[in-house]
Amino acid sequence: MAANRVICHCKNVDYVTIRKAMIEGARTVEEIKEKTGAGTGCGACVGEIEKILASVCGCKNVSLQEVVDAVNNGADTVEKVGEVTGAGTGCGRCKALIENVIEIKR
Questions:
Q1: What is the rounded CA–CA span in Å between residue 78 and residue 96?
Q2: Where in 1-106 does DSSP place strands (E)?
Q3: What is the pLDDT of residues 58-95, one digit of tens each?
Q4: Which end of the chain is more exposed for a tag (fewer CB within 10 A), N or C?
């Protein structure tokens, strides 16, 4: 997992705040903008926000799409997603996000 650092300097939004918004269901830059304000200033951070949105598990390098695909193919628990993708089997910090993906299936 990336260390906590400021991603959006205009609005002083850090990495952890963006990840928390993802755990609450934000999956697009627009949704991150609405929940956090990140990306609504100069816009220079939008590329970094997109990278954060694309990743679920940094330890195992698992993308959001891989987790969504696993859920859509029947993985209905964090453990089952971990068996299929490896996500959540390292440090475990991504488990709350995986649970949210299971809950909302996106």
A1: 9
A2: 6-8, 13-14, 55-57, 62-63
A3: 999 999 999 999 999 999 999 999 999 999 999 999 99
A4: C
